[in-house]
Amino acid sequence: MLTRDRQPSSDRALPTFISLVVLGILLMTLHVRLEGGGVVDILRTGTQAIVSPLQRGVSYVVNPIADAIEGLGDISGLREENIALRAALEESQAELIAVEDQLARLDLLEDLYGLDELDSDLGRTVANVIGRPDPFDASFIIDRGSSHGIVVGQPVIDSNGFVVGSVSSVTPVSATIVPITASREGVIVLVGSQVGSLTSLVNSDEMRLEITDAKEPVLATERVLTSAASVSFPAGLPVGEVVEDLAIASGGITGVVQPYVDIDTLRLVVVLAWPADPISAAGQDEVQVEETTTTTISETTTTEGG
Amino acid sequence: MRSRRVAAVILIVVGAVVLQTTFFGRIRLITPDLVLLVSVLLALTRIKPEIVLATAFTSGVVVDLLGSSLLGLRAIVFTSAAYVALRTRERADIGRIATAIWAGLVTLIGVLLLVLVGTLFGQSSILGEHVFSRLLTVPLANMLIAFLIAPLLVRVVDQDPAALRY
Lengths: 306, 166
Hints:
The complex is a heterodimer of chains A (about 300) and B (about 170).
Chain A: H1 13-34, H2 38-113, E1 123-131, E2 140-142, E3 155-158, E4 163-170, E5 175-179, E6 187-191, E7 194-200, E8 207-211, E9 223-226, E10 238-242, E11 253-259, E12 268-273, H3 278-283, H4 289-305
Antiparallel strand pairs in A: 1-2, 1-12, 2-5, 3-4, 3-12, 4-5, 6-7, 6-9, 7-8, 8-11, 9-10, 10-11
Chain B: H1 2-21, H2 23-26, H3 34-41, H4 49-66, H5 73-88, H6 96-120, H7 131-158
Helix pairs in contact in B: 1-3, 1-7, 3-4, 3-5, 3-6, 4-5, 5-6, 6-7
């Protein structure tokens, strides 16, 4: 065995270690007490502002390499995936014909009643995913920030319009997104005509659905959309689908929802400029959920009508 | 000499942070925790133990600030892992494989501590998808990377081409 002549670790290592752990606990306490705002927010924004240009530059170089490695890893599953995709394509084509028919009817009815799609004029910022903090943190970093109009709390969707998560912190050139599957805050959703809540599950990409005042059972593959009662997302965004048939038990329904978005494969996201007036919305208390929602919808309707 | 060593440590830590958040954040095939690994491997160098602990703490704070979880969480975890590494580093001197296994085991202690403290503080972003599988894949990936880079890192930091030549 070959022992190197190093600095001895017995004299001041333990006091230093204890001091640093105490300092770490103080930082954690400070973070909890400040609820992520104040000094913590300034530090976070400052660090991200320094590191994000480096991340952007390195991403530009390493992304093709990462894609190549990912491609190699996926080769084994491609054949099975192709067979499954062909079957899904045939099924989708059949559904598409039915949907086109329904869309034609919808257009006709919208013309008749003079309706427009709600929130169709929402500002959208397309951003690339440039990194993730570490293997245990589900949040990810995008290459657009406050200089592109992104504000903390704005909802994020993928290129198909499926809900991804929301903006947790912003620097001038980057932003950190927390996916709904890792967020401590639930999402108010609509399943059929019933309002429920979705919360994240430990060690799972699925989410827990809870409908407290259920009126009817929920069937498997039923779509789960964001509700108008949600203060974090505009109404009507697709979130996922129910995994299995759910019966009413003790007046409520509890089950599992599979979100449409696979966070690990995300390369591109869209940040929605919602609510239309983030400053006044930020001032609203969570207790005033109904008031906020009503204001937003009426504002949007007025704008579009005007 | 000292300033070159400081510059080398800063460059290595910043490089690890940037590579971790970009390259290793993109690929699912291998999921190391490069910053934690650097904090552990610095224990093998001739840097003063207090400086190794302070570097681990600072690296943890930086990773915390780049993510969405509690500030100080990784700082505590990285510092604890570095302390364990300092106390057990003689066991890594046998050879390259021993160094890799040692780095993997210290990483395992680190990630277990991260999940434990994260759970106690209600950090749902840490307890998300793949948390249990990553308790194994992260130490394994760190073991592999330590096998490849540990001697080189020690030689660069210590400015000693003969370091860790088994």
